[in-house]
Amino acid sequence: MIRTQIQLTEEQSEALKQLAAREGKTVAELVRLGVDQLIRSRRVVAPEELRRRALAVVGKFHSGDEDLSAEHDRYAAEAFES
Description:
67% helix; mainly alpha; 4 helices
C-alpha cells in the first residue's frame, strides 16, 4: 500500500471516526472503500471492451419472433406503450 496524506474537515473526520467505530473498521479502511466506490462509479469503459461485451451476448437470447430483425422498431414501440 502507498501511504497518502489527505485533509478532511473537522466534520468529515469526526463522522468517519464514528462510522469506523460503529462498523469495527479503521478510518483508512473506510477511505479506501470510498475511493473504490468512486473509481467504479466513474470508470470509463474502452470502446474495444464495450464491443467485446456486446459480441459476447450475440445469439444468447431468443425472442421467438421470426420477424424481429425486420420489425424491431414496431416491437420497441409496442413495448414502450405498455
